[in-house]
Amino acid sequence: MTSSVTLAAQGPDFSRIALGLWRLADWQMTPQQRVSFLEQALALGITTIDQADIYGDYQSETLLGEALQLAPQLRQRFQFVTKCGIKLISAHRPSHGIQHYDTSRAHIIASAEQSLRAMRIDAIDLLLIHRPDPLMDADEIAEAFQTLQQSGKVRHFGVSNFTNPQFELLSSRFPLVTNQVELSLLHMQPLHDGTLDLCQRLRIAPMIWSALGGGRLLLSDDQQTERGLHIKRTLETIAAQYAVTPPVIALSWILQHPSKPLVLTGSGRLQALQEAVRATTITLSREQWFSLWVAAAGKNVD
User: Fold this and answer.
1) Contact 5, 178 (CB under 8 A)
2) Number of domains composing the chain
3) Domain that holds residue 162
4) What whole-number distance in Å separates Cα of residue 74 and Cα of residue 84?
5) Which end of the chain has fewer CB within 10 Å, C or N?
6) Is 55 among the residues known to form the active site?
């Protein structure tokens, strides 16, 4: 069973592993198979679901909603996260003439309401602005957040892929509980650009996507770069010491950061969920943690 973590002083409490459903449309599951998958996640203690309006070409939320309609009792057992602010060119959104960002008050509210209808739920536990918008008006976004919160449609708010100045700008207008960012042994930028430092300072737990480098850490040896192969060999060495698989160690490396990150899964395989949960039980030594950092950085610490 995975543990839980409080994202910020004002909440919410989420499972340390979140069920990422951005590929749900690719998994070719029937509605009943989706129900079974949700039940398997719950059995592992995974109670947080991560979605976005655009996932699966605007279909992922609807596919989740079909499952929840079949098993409405599951609605009360999950926390629902979704995102808005990106407009894709899609047959499902014929009015979009160009791919762009929209963080206007009207779009945020309309998107949240559409997500509620698609997922067939009464409230969104956490709504994120998906990408920073150059035309972002912090006061207008705060007004949209306040409207959605007062109406009971959204409980908490955060951002995704925001730089520290962008996060601080919006959080100066409205309380934010997380920044969802990319972090893995193949993408260590948040460790060095102050993103995780700011989370620690504010006591806000970050949410981590692409924790296995978009699957690149799992590629066969002949598909790896020299750097990737070095990381893979180091993972294999440490994994053998704990009698676990390399993905478990790659995830535990992230989970060990003192900012208390949550990790999003991205697979429809039960084994992948089990490995993610297992990672929450592993505590690497400092030498093990830094051996992975050195493998990923390609150099020793100074």
Assistant:
1) no
2) 2
3) 4-177
4) 24
5) C
6) yes
